[in-house]
Amino acid sequence: MGADGKPVATFVAASGSPTETAEMKPARVPTGTVNLDDASTVSFDWYLNHWDTKVTVQLRHVRTGRTYDWVMDGYDEPGGWDSDYSAGFPFGPAWSGTLGDGNRFGEPNTRMASNGAYTWEMTAEPWTGVGPALKRSGSFTVTRSAKPHDFDDDGAPDLLARDASGVLWSDTGFRDSRYSNEVDVPKTRIGGGWQSYDRVEATGDLAGSAHADIVARDKVGVLWLYQGNGLGGFASRVQVGGGW
Protein backbone atom coordinates (compact mmCIF):
# COMPACT_ATOMS: atom_id res chain seq x y z
CA MET A 1 0.00 0.00 0.00
CA GLY A 2 1.19 3.49 -0.78
CA ALA A 3 1.28 6.41 1.64
CA ASP A 4 -2.15 7.41 0.38
CA GLY A 5 -3.61 3.97 1.19
CA LYS A 6 -3.90 2.88 -2.46
CA PRO A 7 -2.18 -0.15 -4.04
CA VAL A 8 1.17 0.55 -5.68
CA ALA A 9 2.59 -1.64 -8.49
CA THR A 10 6.35 -2.11 -8.59
CA PHE A 11 8.14 -3.05 -11.81
CA VAL A 12 10.28 -6.13 -11.16
CA ALA A 13 11.46 -7.55 -14.50
CA ALA A 14 10.76 -7.60 -18.24
CA SER A 15 9.54 -10.73 -20.01
CA GLY A 16 11.35 -9.85 -23.22
CA SER A 17 8.04 -9.69 -25.05
CA PRO A 18 5.71 -6.72 -25.51
CA THR A 19 2.64 -6.56 -23.30
CA GLU A 20 0.50 -5.88 -26.35
CA THR A 21 -0.11 -8.67 -28.89
CA ALA A 22 2.89 -9.17 -31.17
CA GLU A 23 4.46 -11.73 -33.47
CA MET A 24 7.46 -13.62 -32.10
CA LYS A 25 8.75 -14.72 -35.52
CA PRO A 26 7.67 -14.48 -39.18
CA ALA A 27 4.33 -16.06 -40.05
CA ARG A 28 4.03 -19.12 -42.26
CA VAL A 29 1.42 -18.27 -44.90
CA PRO A 30 0.98 -19.12 -48.60
CA THR A 31 2.33 -16.71 -51.19
CA GLY A 32 2.34 -16.92 -54.96
CA THR A 33 0.49 -19.93 -56.37
CA VAL A 34 -0.92 -22.90 -54.43
CA ASN A 35 -1.66 -26.04 -56.46
CA LEU A 36 -4.54 -27.81 -54.69
CA ASP A 37 -4.10 -30.88 -56.90
CA ASP A 38 -0.84 -31.48 -55.03
CA ALA A 39 -1.61 -30.20 -51.51
CA SER A 40 -4.36 -31.66 -49.31
CA THR A 41 -4.00 -28.79 -46.81
CA VAL A 42 -2.47 -25.32 -46.81
CA SER A 43 -1.03 -24.10 -43.51
CA PHE A 44 -1.50 -20.65 -42.01
CA ASP A 45 0.49 -20.00 -38.81
CA TRP A 46 1.05 -16.84 -36.86
CA TYR A 47 3.36 -17.10 -33.81
CA LEU A 48 2.01 -14.81 -31.11
CA ASN A 49 3.41 -13.85 -27.73
CA HIS A 50 0.21 -14.60 -25.75
CA TRP A 51 -1.95 -17.70 -25.87
CA ASP A 52 -4.95 -15.87 -24.38
CA THR A 53 -5.78 -14.35 -27.75
CA LYS A 54 -8.76 -14.62 -30.05
CA VAL A 55 -7.61 -15.07 -33.65
CA THR A 56 -9.97 -14.66 -36.60
CA VAL A 57 -8.93 -15.53 -40.17
CA GLN A 58 -10.91 -14.96 -43.35
CA LEU A 59 -9.95 -16.09 -46.85
CA ARG A 60 -11.89 -14.45 -49.69
CA HIS A 61 -12.14 -15.61 -53.30
CA VAL A 62 -11.80 -12.37 -55.23
CA ARG A 63 -13.94 -13.31 -58.25
CA THR A 64 -16.98 -14.66 -56.38
CA GLY A 65 -16.64 -13.04 -52.95
CA ARG A 66 -17.09 -16.42 -51.23
CA THR A 67 -15.17 -16.81 -47.99
CA TYR A 68 -13.64 -19.28 -45.59
CA ASP A 69 -13.95 -18.14 -41.97
CA TRP A 70 -11.92 -19.57 -39.07
CA VAL A 71 -11.75 -18.63 -35.38
CA MET A 72 -9.57 -19.88 -32.54
CA ASP A 73 -10.32 -18.61 -29.06
CA GLY A 74 -7.03 -19.03 -27.21
CA TYR A 75 -8.67 -18.39 -23.84
CA ASP A 76 -10.58 -21.68 -24.19
CA GLU A 77 -8.27 -23.54 -26.55
CA PRO A 78 -4.63 -22.44 -26.24
CA GLY A 79 -2.90 -22.50 -29.58
CA GLY A 80 0.38 -23.74 -28.15
CA TRP A 81 0.08 -26.31 -25.39
CA ASP A 82 3.48 -27.75 -26.35
CA SER A 83 4.89 -24.58 -27.79
CA ASP A 84 8.17 -22.95 -26.80
CA TYR A 85 7.09 -19.56 -25.52
CA SER A 86 10.16 -17.85 -26.98
CA ALA A 87 9.11 -19.10 -30.43
CA GLY A 88 5.53 -17.92 -29.97
CA PHE A 89 2.20 -19.70 -29.65
CA PRO A 90 0.99 -20.87 -33.10
CA PHE A 91 -2.45 -19.80 -34.30
CA GLY A 92 -3.99 -20.47 -37.71
CA PRO A 93 -5.97 -22.97 -39.79
CA ALA A 94 -4.81 -25.92 -41.83
CA TRP A 95 -6.98 -25.02 -44.82
CA SER A 96 -8.27 -28.03 -46.76
CA GLY A 97 -9.35 -26.10 -49.86
CA THR A 98 -12.98 -25.45 -48.99
CA LEU A 99 -15.16 -22.38 -48.50
CA GLY A 100 -17.60 -21.81 -45.66
CA ASP A 101 -17.26 -21.74 -41.89
CA GLY A 102 -14.15 -23.45 -40.56
CA ASN A 103 -15.14 -23.85 -36.93
CA ARG A 104 -12.81 -24.84 -34.15
CA PHE A 105 -13.88 -28.49 -34.18
CA GLY A 106 -12.83 -28.93 -37.81
CA GLU A 107 -16.19 -29.96 -39.26
CA PRO A 108 -16.14 -30.05 -43.05
CA ASN A 109 -17.25 -27.03 -45.00
CA THR A 110 -19.89 -26.79 -47.66
CA ARG A 111 -18.14 -25.90 -50.91
CA MET A 112 -14.91 -26.56 -52.75
CA ALA A 113 -12.67 -23.53 -53.15
CA SER A 114 -12.70 -22.14 -56.67
CA ASN A 115 -9.52 -21.47 -58.60
CA GLY A 116 -8.20 -17.93 -58.85
CA ALA A 117 -6.99 -15.06 -56.70
CA TYR A 118 -7.58 -14.99 -52.93
CA THR A 119 -6.99 -12.43 -50.23
CA TRP A 120 -6.66 -13.21 -46.51
CA GLU A 121 -7.04 -11.17 -43.34
CA MET A 122 -5.96 -12.14 -39.82
CA THR A 123 -7.05 -10.31 -36.65
CA ALA A 124 -5.62 -11.18 -33.22
CA GLU A 125 -7.51 -9.66 -30.27
CA PRO A 126 -5.93 -9.90 -26.79
CA TRP A 127 -8.20 -11.11 -24.01
CA THR A 128 -6.30 -8.85 -21.60
CA GLY A 129 -7.63 -5.83 -23.43
CA VAL A 130 -4.13 -4.36 -23.44
CA GLY A 131 -3.12 -2.73 -26.69
CA PRO A 132 -4.78 -2.74 -30.10
CA ALA A 133 -5.74 -5.80 -32.15
CA LEU A 134 -2.96 -7.14 -34.36
CA LYS A 135 -3.96 -7.21 -38.04
CA ARG A 136 -2.25 -8.80 -41.00
CA SER A 137 -3.30 -9.36 -44.64
CA GLY A 138 -2.01 -10.90 -47.83
CA SER A 139 -2.90 -12.72 -51.03
CA PHE A 140 -2.24 -15.89 -53.01
CA THR A 141 -3.61 -17.78 -56.01
CA VAL A 142 -5.23 -21.23 -56.14
CA THR A 143 -4.84 -23.40 -59.20
CA ARG A 144 -5.87 -26.90 -60.25
CA SER A 145 -5.87 -28.73 -63.56
CA ALA A 146 -9.06 -28.33 -65.59
CA LYS A 147 -11.68 -31.07 -65.02
CA PRO A 148 -14.04 -32.16 -67.86
CA HIS A 149 -17.33 -31.77 -65.95
CA ASP A 150 -16.34 -28.93 -63.62
CA PHE A 151 -18.65 -26.01 -64.42
CA ASP A 152 -17.87 -23.81 -61.39
CA ASP A 153 -14.06 -24.14 -61.54
CA ASP A 154 -13.66 -25.69 -58.10
CA GLY A 155 -11.97 -28.96 -59.04
CA ALA A 156 -15.04 -31.15 -58.37
CA PRO A 157 -17.21 -32.71 -61.11
CA ASP A 158 -20.76 -31.41 -61.47
CA LEU A 159 -23.95 -33.14 -62.61
CA LEU A 160 -26.48 -31.28 -64.76
CA ALA A 161 -30.16 -32.21 -64.50
CA ARG A 162 -33.20 -30.85 -66.32
CA ASP A 163 -36.50 -31.06 -64.47
CA ALA A 164 -39.96 -31.61 -65.95
CA SER A 165 -40.60 -27.87 -66.28
CA GLY A 166 -37.44 -27.30 -68.33
CA VAL A 167 -35.27 -25.79 -65.57
CA LEU A 168 -31.60 -26.81 -65.68
CA TRP A 169 -29.86 -27.47 -62.35
CA SER A 170 -26.27 -28.16 -61.36
CA ASP A 171 -25.55 -30.58 -58.52
CA THR A 172 -22.20 -31.46 -57.00
CA GLY A 173 -20.60 -33.26 -54.11
CA PHE A 174 -17.04 -33.84 -52.96
CA ARG A 175 -14.92 -35.55 -50.35
CA ASP A 176 -13.26 -33.17 -47.91
CA SER A 177 -9.55 -33.95 -48.34
CA ARG A 178 -8.66 -33.29 -44.72
CA TYR A 179 -11.46 -35.10 -42.89
CA SER A 180 -12.43 -37.67 -45.58
CA ASN A 181 -16.11 -36.80 -45.26
CA GLU A 182 -18.55 -36.72 -48.15
CA VAL A 183 -19.97 -33.20 -48.45
CA ASP A 184 -23.25 -32.51 -50.23
CA VAL A 185 -23.49 -29.04 -51.74
CA PRO A 186 -26.97 -27.55 -52.35
CA LYS A 187 -27.90 -27.69 -56.04
CA THR A 188 -27.76 -24.49 -58.09
CA ARG A 189 -30.45 -23.25 -60.48
CA ILE A 190 -28.96 -22.37 -63.87
CA GLY A 191 -32.12 -21.24 -65.66
CA GLY A 192 -35.32 -22.18 -67.45
CA GLY A 193 -36.36 -22.80 -71.05
CA TRP A 194 -34.31 -25.96 -71.58
CA GLN A 195 -37.42 -27.94 -72.62
CA SER A 196 -36.80 -26.56 -76.14
CA TYR A 197 -33.95 -29.05 -76.52
CA ASP A 198 -34.28 -32.78 -77.05
CA ARG A 199 -30.63 -33.48 -76.22
CA VAL A 200 -28.12 -31.77 -73.92
CA GLU A 201 -24.53 -33.01 -73.63
CA ALA A 202 -21.67 -32.10 -71.30
CA THR A 203 -18.62 -31.99 -73.59
CA GLY A 204 -15.77 -30.51 -71.59
CA ASP A 205 -13.96 -27.51 -73.06
CA LEU A 206 -14.86 -26.84 -76.70
CA ALA A 207 -14.51 -23.05 -76.93
CA GLY A 208 -10.88 -22.79 -75.81
CA SER A 209 -11.29 -21.49 -72.25
CA ALA A 210 -10.35 -23.37 -69.09
CA HIS A 211 -14.02 -24.04 -68.29
CA ALA A 212 -16.31 -26.87 -69.32
CA ASP A 213 -18.96 -26.23 -71.98
CA ILE A 214 -22.18 -27.94 -73.05
CA VAL A 215 -23.99 -28.35 -76.37
CA ALA A 216 -27.75 -28.63 -76.87
CA ARG A 217 -29.73 -29.78 -79.92
CA ASP A 218 -33.14 -28.21 -80.45
CA LYS A 219 -36.16 -30.04 -81.84
CA VAL A 220 -35.53 -28.93 -85.44
CA GLY A 221 -31.95 -30.20 -85.44
CA VAL A 222 -29.97 -27.00 -84.75
CA LEU A 223 -26.96 -27.40 -82.45
CA TRP A 224 -26.14 -24.68 -79.90
CA LEU A 225 -23.00 -24.10 -77.83
CA TYR A 226 -23.16 -22.83 -74.24
CA GLN A 227 -19.71 -21.75 -73.09
CA GLY A 228 -19.01 -22.22 -69.37
CA ASN A 229 -18.24 -19.09 -67.37
CA GLY A 230 -16.45 -20.81 -64.49
CA LEU A 231 -19.13 -19.70 -62.02
CA GLY A 232 -21.47 -22.65 -62.53
CA GLY A 233 -23.38 -20.99 -65.37
CA PHE A 234 -22.99 -20.34 -69.07
CA ALA A 235 -22.61 -17.47 -71.51
CA SER A 236 -25.33 -16.74 -74.06
CA ARG A 237 -25.78 -19.53 -76.55
CA VAL A 238 -24.00 -19.53 -79.92
CA GLN A 239 -25.44 -21.35 -82.95
CA VAL A 240 -23.16 -24.04 -84.31
CA GLY A 241 -25.33 -25.04 -87.24
CA GLY A 242 -28.23 -27.11 -88.49
CA GLY A 243 -28.66 -30.64 -89.71
CA TRP A 244 -28.00 -32.34 -86.40
Would you write up a description of this structure?
The protein has a 7-stranded mixed sheet with strand order 2-12-11-5-6-9-10, with no helix packed on it. Strands 16-17-18-19 form a 4-stranded antiparallel sheet, with no helix packed on it. Strands 1-4-7 form a 3-stranded antiparallel sheet, with no helix packed on it. Mean pLDDT is 85; it is low at 103-109. The radius of gyration is 25 Å and the shape is elongated. The termini are far apart. Helices cover 0% and strands 45% of the residues. It contains no helices and 19 strands. Strand 13 and strand 14 (168-175) form a beta hairpin. The chain is mainly β and 244 residues long.
Please outline the helices and strands.
Elements: E1 23-28, E2 33-35, E3 42-43, E4 45-48, E5 53-61, E6 67-73, E7 89-91, E8 94-95, E9 98-102, E10 111-112, E11 116-126, E12 134-143, E13 158-162, E14 168-175, E15 182-191, E16 197-204, E17 213-218, E18 223-226, E19 238-241
Parallel strand pairs: 2-12, 6-9
Antiparallel strand pairs: 1-4, 3-8, 4-7, 5-6, 5-11, 9-10, 11-12, 13-14, 14-15, 16-17, 17-18, 18-19
What is this structure, in a nutshell?
With 244 residues, this protein is an all-beta fold. The protein is built from no helices and 19 strands.
Number of strands: 19
Overall geometry: elongated
The secondary-structure element order is EEEEEEEEEEEEEEEEEEE
Residue-averaged pLDDT:
85
Give the N-terminus to C-terminus distance in angstroms. Answer: 96 Å
Q: Which stretches are poorly predicted, pLDDT < 50 over at least 5 residues?
A: 103-109
Calculate Rg over CA atoms: 25 Å
The helix content is under 10%
Count of helices? Answer: 0
Strand content: 35-45%
Q: Quick one: biggest sheet?
A: 7 strands, mixed
Structural class per helix/strand content?
mainly beta
Describe the strand arrangement of the main beta sheet, using strand numbers. 2-12-11-5-6-9-10
